[in-house]
Specification:
The chain is of the alpha+beta class and 304 residues long. 60% of the residues lie in helices and 7% in strands. The strands form two sheets. It has a four-stranded mixed beta sheet with strand order 3-4-6-5, sandwiched between helices.
């Protein structure tokens, strides 16, 4: 003799899973709703954007990180010389262009007040970044790939675009939402067999991870597009952007991870995207005070 549900009324595995999924949605809905209401705003190109920080919080966080980097690299910070002057000039042109009416119309963002600052670090690291709030760091290791002032404007325009688009605060919100979902799922699966529960949570975590990676790739593409318009408004030839990424592709030696598992688009994707956006950037460039493309001063000059 057996007890419990008659066969026709016994909950199936599918119905039990559906019930658990409903519980997950309900548990996650309240904190997610609060985050969405607090941080929803219009992002670049008119899309909806959820951020975890307001501009003042972003600026404070960016300044703290900036000071930490400069403290860590204090022996390598270049403070004078032709190279520093050239990089400051590029930064000045790009940050001025960030208030250009044509650029703001193109990216569909309002004018923003940021405390811009740029520092140059003597390092083989092939990198540059712009922290939330407008603090820019350029490592000399990127200069051989940039080759010229226009090539470096590609890099710096892209990084400045991240700050203008508030991508850092948006990524924080995305990660918070993913964590809320995973925690809610863990609570709803509490009475499941431990082995099965672990498998489900691993799958959810993997989904959240690669979802964030795709989200990050979208940010990189958006910064590429914004940076292209920014450099054009500043007077740098936007067609040089594709040449920069071709050099970057050659420098990578084919060691980039598969695009689906990377935080950045592949070099091929970037080049094709930039090519498709050039027609939008050229009117800004043609209307600008054009900057002559010329080689950067030698990084061998160590003016400290």
């Amino acid at each position: 003799m057996s007890f419990g549900y008659p066969d026709q009324r016994r909950p199936t595995i599918g119905s039990r899973l559906l019930t658990r999924l409903v519980i997950v949605v309900v548990l996650a809905a309240i904190p997610l709703g609060s985050l969405l209401l607090k941080g929803c705003q219009k992002g670049p190109f008119g899309r909806n954007q959820v951020v975890a920080l307001n501009p003042e919080q972003e600026e404070q966080l960016g300044l703290q990180a900036f000071e930490e980097v400069l403290q860590q690299e204090r022996q390598k910070v270049l403070t004078r010389g032709p190279l520093v002057d050239a990089i400051r000039d590029i930064a000045q042109r790009l940050t001025t262009a960030a208030r250009h009416e044509g650029f703001l119309t193109g990216v569909q963002l309002p004018e923003q007040e940021m405390q811009w600052d740029v520092r140059v670090i003597d390092s083989k690291e092939q990198n540059a970044f712009c922290l939330p709030g407008g603090k820019i760091v350029v490592y000399t290791g990127i200069l051989p790939i940039a080759e010229s002032n226009t090539g470096l404007a590609v890099v710096m325009g892209h990084e400045i675009a991240h700050a203008l688009a508030h991508h850092g605060a948006e990524r924080m919100a995305q990660q918070q939402m993913a964590q809320i979902g995973v925690m809610a799922a863990g609570g709803a699966l509490g009475d499941m067999d431990p082995g099965a529960r672990q498998q489900v949570l691993q799958m959810i975590n993997a989904g959240a991870k690669f979802g964030i990676l795709k989200y990050s790739r979208n940010h990189e593409s958006e910064a590429d597009r914004m940076g292209l318009l920014l450099m054009a408004a500043a007077g740098y030839d936007p067609r040089e952007s594709m040449k920069f990424w071709e050099r970057m592709q050659a420098n990578s030696g084919g060691k980039s991870p598969p695009e689906f598992a990377s935080t950045h688009p592949s070099h091929e994707t970037r080049i094709q995207d930039l090519k498709s956006w050039i027609p939008d950037a050229m009117p800004l460039y043609e209307a600008s005070q054009k900057v002559q493309t010329k080689p950067l001063p030698s990084a061998d000059f160590r003016g400290i």
